[in-house]
Amino acid sequence: DVVKPFMCLRMFPTRLLLVACTIAALGAVAAPLRPHVVYVLLDDWGWADAGWHRPTGEAQGVSTPHMDALVKEGIELNRHYSYKVCSPSRSAIQSGRNPIHVSVTNTMETYRNPSDPVAGWSAMPVNMTGLGDVMARGGYSTHFYGKWDAGMATPFHSPLGRGYNKSLFYFHHQNDYWTSATQPHESTAGDTTCPGYPPDRGPRDLWEDDHPAWDLVNSVNCTQVSHGGCRYEDRIFADRVLAEVAAHNVSMPLFLFWAPHAVHDPLEVPQEFADRFAEWGPPSGRWERQYYLAILSYVDTAIGQLVSLLHARDMWKDTLLIVHSDNGGPIYQNGRAGGNNWPLRGGKVSNWEGGIRVNAFVSGGVLPETVRGTTSDALMAAWDWYATLAGLAGISPIDARAAAAGLPPVDSHDLWPLLVGLNATSPRQELAIGTDGLTIGIGKSFNTRVGGLIRGKYKLLQQVLIPMAGWTGPIFPNLTRWDADYTLAVCGPSPLAGCLFDLEQDPGEHHNLARERPEVLHEMCSRLHELQRTVFRPRRGRHDLAACKAVQEKYHGFWGPWAMLDAWPEARERAWHFREKQLTEHLIVV
Q1: In this structure, are residues 269 and 177 in contact, taking their beta carbons and an 8 Å threshold?
Q2: Which of 211, 213, 508, 517 would suit a FRET pair with 341, their CA atoms being 20 to 30 Å apart?
Q3: Using CA atoms, how far apart are residues 20 and 590, in angstroms rounded to an integer?
Q4: How many CA atoms, within 13 angstroms, populate the side-chain half-sphere of residue 233?
């Protein structure tokens, strides 16, 4: 269909559509939109830790004024889902695949199976095309800053190898905000340290492009107790984000993926921010909640600084901003990680709504005025941004490289027509909910399972034991002890043991419909079994001692890739092949 020029300008009043609308006026199909895209992926951000999810006057310390304002001028995504833990969510986003088709396991980055050079690693297989690669082929300047957690073993497992021109990041699930060292004592999965390191500190984990960021780390003496003159890790990332935006040539589309450490533990933050939330700490509250709120406030302030800069550079009108969490807030171990998902059930590492239904919104001047300030209840998933952004870049999301290696295809949906009001319904009609078969969701299981299904308004869960089977209150963690890890539910395939919920009427999953609607239960169980036949379950191997050898002999105390190191030139080519081409060279008119 031909796009009428007046409709084009009314829907997308931006510089980037000037050429496209001119082409439309001549009776051709418009060129790709190619807005600037800023993608902010927060970590462990609880449902109750977003200001717009708090009733008026009941913030209970949650302070996200900059994001609250962005939601009011954007679109709140009320049914946006991700995976229950960090690494699979990030692999899903970067690969455009449901975790059941890329990785459901939160293993450490040091795993390797020598008998499988394609998929025998943690996180994404070598031959899957990354989101950065897609955007680079679309003529974008591509950047990644923050937490990667989508692989480390080879150059292809780095942001550079997945198509990001520039990057500053750490590989693992977490590191210390002050020293950038991995923390063996904080990890439940192990393998985050090497021989010769103390029990509380592993090797450093901070990289820039294709080498350790030796000059950016603090002394190991920098701590939460004493950090005068030390640089906070999320400040390092935020400063790099701001510097790149300030220096960007606005004639070229920008794709900037920013994944702050916040608000994942360890709960560390500049003391001035912690002091602002003292009333939520001891003696009347918990220090974990105080510091969690402080970290959240810190990153909200940084997001506000970024948006102000985009306005100052006159880029905001041509920008799409995507913000969401990688999973629900952590409520395990008596609230030691500080998060809260009230009124949703459960939390991180569980497949209850509190673990997988995440805070999300889009904003930016590229959104039509008609959709600003609205809420979408359409079903969508974090990995749907892959096809959405590929469409905006004018690139097919089909992954030929993966197909040639016999890997699962992309199963991402283009959300753009839904977001801008061209379609009233989501292209996603169902969501397979993956699991690794582990009760607490972190460890070394490779048993990829479909542990649930969302179709329409119904949600089915099917897992032997699901933790976090309860609800926090408006204030959590608090002085009452609750070990959510051991609040377990059995969800089987029969009406007597099944777990079925109507999410439209009961988003908190209080009322189990398994006995009342056995026909729905059986129909969804049948579909779940069909989806189970599609899962991807390579043998990832085990901790490879060569990873520590590289730490000690090649990277001088830093983690980094240790296998296929002769592939760095090809990895750089993926990121830089399209870097210098101008936007006009990539306009597609058919």
Answers
A1: yes
A2: 517
A3: 12
A4: 36
Going through 113-165 in order, the beta strands assigned E by DSSP cover 141-147
Residue of 278, 184, 276, 176 lying closest to 232 (CA atoms): 176
Distance CA 382, CA 388 (A): 11
pLDDT digits (tens, 9 = 90+) for 285-335: 999 999 999 999 999 999 999 999 999 999 999 999 999 999 999 999 999
Classify burial at 13, counting beta carbons within 10 Å of its beta carbon; exposed 0-12, middle 13-18, buried 19 or more: middle
Is residue 381 within 8 A of residue 431, CB to CB? The reply is: yes
Q: Record the tokens describing residue 273, joined without a space.
A: 């921010």
Summarize pLDDT for 231-243 with one digit per residue, the tens: 999 999 999 999 9
- Tokens 């510089």 sit at which residue? 15
DSSP for 402-467 reads HHHTTPPPP-----HHHHTTS-SS-S--EEEEEE-S-SSS-SS----EEEEEEETTEEEE-EEEES
Dihedral pair phi/psi, residue 313, rounded to 5°:
-90, 5
Phi, psi of 280 (to 5 degrees): -95, 0
Give how far Cα 445 sits from Cα of 196, 270, 327, 435, 524, Å: 28, 37, 19, 10, 25
Amino acid found at 72: K
Residue 97 to residue 386: CA distance in whole angstroms = 8
Bond into 477 cis (ω within 30): yes
Show the beta-strand stretches assigned E in 141-185. 141-147, 166-170
Please give the helix or strand (H or E) that residue 355 lies within, else none: helix 353-356
What pTM was computed for the model? 0.93
Place of tokens 């640089």: 231
Q: Are strands 141-147 and 254-259 parallel, antiparallel or unpaired?
A: parallel
- Tokens representing residue 39 in the block: 């993608």
**Maximum CA extent, the chain:** 70
Q: At residue 274, what is the residue type?
A: A
Q: Given its phi and psi angles, is residue 21 left (phi above 0), alpha (psi -120 to 50 degrees) or beta?
A: alpha
Nearest to 410 by CA among 425, 424, 395, 420: 395
Q: Give the C-alpha separation, 429 to 47, whole Å.
A: 23
Beta bridge partners of 500: 460
Judge whether residue 13 has pLDDT over 80.
Answer: no
pLDDT (mean) for 27-41:
78
Question: How far apart (Å, rounded) are the C-alpha atoms in residues 309 and 299?
Answer: 15
Please report, as a single letter, which amino acid is at residue 54. R
The single-letter code of the amino acid at 590 is V
Any residues with CB less than 8 A from the CB of 444 and at least 6 apart, and which? 105, 107, 189, 542
pLDDT averaged over every residue in the chain: 90
Decide the pairing of beta strands 458-461 and 499-502: antiparallel
First-to-last CA distance in the chain?
A: 11
DSSP 240-306: HHHHHHHH--TTS-EEEEEE--TTSSS----HHHHHHTGGGSTTTS-HHHHHHHHHHHHHHHHHHHH
Neighbours of 497 (CB within 10 A): 13
